[in-house]
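Exam prep: given the inputs below (a chain plus 4-methylsulfanyl-2-ureido-butyric acid), describe the expected output before reading on.
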Amino acid sequence: MRILNVAAAQMGPIQKAESREAVVKRMLALLAEAKAKGADLVVYPELALTTFFPRYYMTDQKDVDAWFESAMPNAAVQPLFDAAAAANIALSIGYAELTPDGHHFNTQILTDRTGKIIGKYRKIHLPGHVEFDAERTHQHLEKRYFEPGDLGFPVFRALGGIFGMLICNDRRWPEAYRVMGLQGVEMVVLGYNTPSVNSQKSVEGPEQRLFHNRLSVQAGAYQNSTFVVAVAKGGNEDGFPLIGGSLIVDPNGVILAEAETEADELLVCACDLDDTAFGKKTIFDFERHRRIEHYGRITSQTGVILPPE
Ligand code: CDT
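Solution:
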């Protein structure tokens, strides 16, 4: 058995005016609860330190950069790293990363139990648009503020297992899980900010959004025989509602725990990483069963391929 106690630290809304220091206090409270419950790893959402700023249209790069972190950890976040190291707990945190050479990424990191960053993922599937779009009920400008990730879908040996990361929209793309599945991933951790209503299809409300969240996370877990820990920032941010629905799913695709609120809420599950072995050795035995010569459309071609008339 390789038991890992994983905590999904769902966060309620962060208002635009809320400081990083105030947010880190909330993250510390979740960490303290995780410590009391014996967690080994605490996973926080996408862009955990601020409101979901890509909903705001900005034209001045200085205003944009104010939402980014040019160092990790930095003074505001250091207390969280210190408390986690003192508690011997690893962290995964989403934030907006500004690199020393001026690149902007939507990033998730994984630390070891000492607070050392041992893994990084930069979001590849950036949804939304580049310019203000009057057709939409609300804006989603990730494509304006972030570059697509440049690290691929790496996995990391940590905490006695093999870990990978995704960020929000990535969870809807089966090939994102698959690239990590092919590297033997045993636990995928991911954070998200999902608006409760589809800005281009107003009949698609929170119930359907929660359904798609479960569907894509459970499928990703089952189809790759991996645990998936999906962590929301939920609730109403300055009039813009986000779904909660954080969940921890086992390698059979079964939901082990699911958030009941849209507020700061901790889910903790004991996950035996050895439970990933059966599916990997049998149905998903990629070495024995895959027929890679038939996967050309996703491995070597780009664009949409229409079926013949
Ligand atoms: N943050 C993020 O990626 N949100 C998207 C919203 C999609 S609608 C533009 C998501 O997939 O939940």
